[in-house]
């Protein structure tokens, strides 16, 4: 029996070329905007940066400190105790930790803290908005691949309900998997460790490492399969028909039980293809970084030197040029993802339709590329 996952690779390439070429500027830019939100074939802002290890405020290290720091960096008195006792009360309040200037205004520190927390809050808010919009953009991209044209606002408004369903499903999926992981961790803690924190140590963790690896692998693979199949199979079914996310999964599950070999073949080969796409994307991304770094770097250097090389205005100009360069890199990165993401999504939909014609979301695309 032929494996559709193998046979449909060439068809996915043909479908991608037929949709994206000849090159049309606005089509690519609109698709780049959409792909930016969904992360495409393995990039974009889906990689959320973590914050931590802020540093040891006031810890100057060995030999540091103010006035009477000891060799070990600990605070020590360098005057007799009776001398200190004779100091005015206001003077005692001015004693500070080593490395912390005593003349730093409290208002300045409070203002700096407020700015830092405001920036962190803004980043979290933007990440949440990005994550929510990604659910709606999945349907915008899929509808564009089905229609072979792109209308962002129209497709977005047409699939608001689907986007909400997908968001709630993904949220529930994460909560369920997290709950399962916590339940397993609690069971191990109470059954294997007796519910005592004293039993948690390097030896117990090492003894249970094999179990942890197996549990993590099972949870990660099962979560990845459900999440991935929802994205590449159920979302197209919801886009092309009136299926909801649960009814779509019901129909997909019936097809998977009827043709497990075909879906397993897709699962395995899609991993290989995504690795290949990720490598290609990384190579093109490095090339784009180098190409953009040259003009923006030279422009920043020229402005820095022309404005005095060190003043606030010079650094502001460098910051503006750097921001523009970063934005240009984001746009180019999204454009790089357009053909790669289009290929992967067409590939999944072609495989789905070949396995089960009743689930086919792109019959017209399939007929056109195979009749050419």
UniProtKB/TrEMBL annotation:
Protein species of origin: Haloarcula salina
Protein name: Uncharacterized protein
Annotated Pfam families: DUF7544
Entry keyword set: Membrane, Transmembrane, Transmembrane helix
Bilayer-crossing regions: 26-45, 109-133, 167-193, 205-229, 263-280, 287-307, 313-336
